[in-house]
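Data card: per-record layout.
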Amino acid sequence: MGYGGYLTLLNGSPNDWTLSSQHSYQMDAWSWPTISAGTASRVYVEFGTKGSQKDDAGEAYYNIAGTSNKFQVKARKPSDFMLTITLDGLATKQSPQGSNIDLGFRHDAAVDWIMSTDEAGQWWSSAGLGVDWMQQSLGSIGNRTLKQICMPGSHDAGISNFKPGTVGANFANSQTQYLNFYDQLVAGSRYFDLRPVISAGKWVAGHYSELEGIGWLGGNGQSVEEIVKQVNDFTAKYKELVIINLSHTLDTDNDYKDLTQDQWNKLFNTLKGLNNRYTVTNPGKTDFSGKVLNEFIADRAAVFVLAQLPGGISLGNYANQGFFNQDNFPLYDSYSNSNDAGKMQADQLSKLKSERNLVADASKRKDKFHIFSWTLTQQAEDVLNPENAIMNLAVGVYDNLFVEAFNAFTPESFPNVLYIDAVGIRDKPVGFPYDKVKSVGTNGDIASLAVAVNNAKAGGNNYIIG
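The structure for this 466-residue chain is written out next.
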């Protein structure tokens, strides 16, 4: 057996990518299909077992049907295994014609090449997508409502490090994110699940669950003060929309009770340190997910703070200071609660199909802001197994977002949030000897996937684009 991995080719355009020719030397697997418009394919590539692998090579030449555009896929092993895209007959928003774009190579896993076209026919690629992808996309998505836009999202966004909270909790069963809040923003995330708790008298991001027969299990991550600073650092540089959803609030110093009104008020006062809060006087029950993106970030950054308030708690005058409740941003948010990749995938795709129907006929339309929870949930057997760490489970289903999920999305049924753990990485960060999180490379393809959904899926819906 040779050394194999995959290349995902995601065609977010209305034109088929057709193979004109291919050839290889000493490659054990090198066979390339047509990539139909609006679809993705995962292609297996295997470097050979005969001779010196440094001589292994392959080329596949693609034409983009109906155009003069073309590109190549190349395999080489100069010092390490490498797949490269050559834009010999094509330029994208990020890369001029003639560019060679090294994608790397992942043994038994995938690297991605994502290209899509916006309403103006301009090509976007996964190479060098700018941090401010929303601002760059305003020409296409600025007049779409938030219900009609796809973005990456961070589950348990504040748990990018681990500080003990209860007996039995450790970084493997508590830490959900590899990157801190700022770096998740840089990686493209725009929707953040923040779970503020009181711990040792301070506001921190918490990740706690009450387990039957065990009690409370969990720990803490970044302080809320640090998160506020990192969001401010980001919005000082980039005029992007940041949605922060507050939920699962607890007083861990007081038997894990719900927050009182006074404690909520103190939390809001802490979060008033967020600059660029989106504010509206007397918002009432206005649904702001029905507002267009330009209203938020046409000429500025905007931070939309949404609080999932329990019964008996109100915003009071904080409603006029950039804080909103669930009436102002209704969500469809239903996770699979499974550690089985197949069950999670089937569950989320089924819910998406049944709950999203973006059509002109209001009587048939289903357009609640949809959280697509591509997350695996540890079960009892996983809690004490570091190999099944939350972040390891996350990267184990990452590649399927780009093929199985993307291919299931349609112009009428696509998610608003690609909601994941371990934003910005795709390799397992938890491994033997399990004493700390390993260093792994970062990757921004999740943002390129969201752009491709906005271009290829939403952009094919006449109700959305008018």
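Known properties of this structure: The chain has eleven helices and 23 strands. The first strand starts at residue 3 and ends at 12.

See the next section for split statistics.
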